[in-house]
Amino acid sequence: MTDDKSKSIDKKPKDAQAPSSPLPPKKNTATESNISSTMAQSNTKTPEPQIKKVDIAIAGVTYPIFCPVHEQEELLSAVSYINNYALDLKRDSPSLSQESILVLCCLNLYEKIHANQRSDEDRLQKNKQSEALLNKIMKDAHSIL
Asked: Checking CA distances to 124, which of 25, 56, 92, 142 falls within 20 to 30 Å?
């Protein structure tokens, strides 16, 4: 995100704009017309993802975001979490700029993600150790019997 409130962040498909061609249009023959018609029909079968403009507010500043409709609920959930964290920072340090608040939010989120990844790695390592110990115990038990 930028601190320029007039800019919006677009999550539009990359191929949403067709490049303009410097060549003049060619005349279609009957076969080319049929192929073009068939291609146009097949293209209309796959609908473009629906993009919706959503105004989000973080620490009192509104940002317009373009978001696929099916991701809107997740976006609003993320905004709620970030907004609460940003408001806590703003309350604790009222002199912080909006940009500083957002940077601190990003750093905090990174720290949480990284801690979760470490926790997952630790859990996997412990599972491997437990499995190895269990296999050794079973092997020892079979050798005794």
From this structure: 142
